[in-house]
Design goal:
The termini are far apart. The protein is elongated and about 95 Å long. It has a 3-stranded antiparallel β-sheet with strand order 1-3-2. The chain is built from 11 helices and 3 strands. It has 270 residues and is mainly alpha-helical. α1 (22-34) crosses α3 (60-68) and α6 runs parallel beside α8 (190-204). Mean pLDDT is 78; it is low at 118-146.
């Protein structure tokens, strides 16, 4: 099912993408519309052709191979997509998807298996119609693929933090990597990180003092699980805060009035 996606102006200026034929560039943009919120879709060339190029005679399989293995002299391991097989079924993954897209929170969760380093490599070796080079996106070895897979997660998390909180943190900072890696090793997901960011921004984002704590070391530290499970806090506007203070004063005055009435009644009785 197609989805509404956005393309940044820089997409059209990518020098490496510009090395590919026009049809491959258009196909790449089309794949974004058919990828789920994790940047994955089924690797079904005939279906993709019918959806993205219904009126044109193009070789989709050839174009997919170009995107997976563009053979760029300057960057021989550059890949725009990764093609992989899990339990006999083929899939496509767009590695940089979440760096450029912010899927709506109501969009359904991905039901497609994740591209995952060594496991995917072993399965791909059994298939003749897959592209081994598509495993690499600026990678030199399979070992680096697993390591860089975590790096992709860190980049996605920091990109989301910067997008929501209007910050400019780097995904390459040593401490940031340590905090996020520690949480990933505890089996927390990218969605968990996004939930924590959303919740704490809702609570702290409009507070000039607390907004300073919207940073990796605070959000992704030892209190991460507590933040994840806390209820969503809606930040009150100044007018709402003023109304809350007014209602509290009224309630306090009413309570004091009731206490005074009780004292007077007690005096009259005695």
């Amino acid at each position: 099912m197609p989805r509404i996606r956005g393309l940044k102006p820089d997409y059209f200026k990518d020098e490496y993408l510009a090395e590919l034929p026009f049809e491959a560039r258009l196909l790449f943009a089309g794949l974004w519309c058919y990828a789920d919120k994790k940047g994955r879709l089924e690797d079904r060339p005939k279906y993709i052709k019918a959806e993205i190029f219904p009126y044109d005679k193009v070789d989709i399989e050839k174009l997919l191979k170009l995107l997976a293995d563009p053979k760029l002299p300057e960057r021989p391991n550059k890949a725009f997509i990764r093609r992989y097989t899990v339990e006999g079924r083929q899939y496509i993954d767009i590695p940089m998807f979440l760096e450029h897209q912010a899927p709506h929170h109501t969009e359904k969760e991905s039901k497609l298996p994740e591209f995952n380093g060594d496991l995917t490599v072993k399965l791909l070796r059994k298939k003749d119609d897959t592209v081994p080079c598509s495993l690499n996106m600026d990678r030199d070895t399979v070992k680096d693929t697993v390591k860089d897979h975590e790096g992709d997660h860190i980049e996605q998390i920091i990109s989301y933090l910067n997008l929501i909180c209007n910050t400019n943190y780097k995904s390459t900072t040593k401490k940031t990597i340590e905090f996020i890696s520690a949480r990933l090793k505890e089996s927390f997901t990218i969605e968990d990180f996004k939930t924590v960011i959303d919740k704490k921004y809702a609570e702290w984002g409009q507070d000039s003092k607390m907004s300073a704590f919207l940073r990796p070391e605070t959000l992704f530290g030892n209190k991460f699980e507590s933040y994840l499970n806390q209820p969503i806090v809606k930040h009150m506007t100044k007018s709402e805060q003023a109304m809350a203070r007014y209602l509290k004063r009224e309630a306090d005055n009413e309570e004091r009035g009731s206490e005074q009435d009780c004292i007077e009644v007690g005096s009259n009785v005695s």
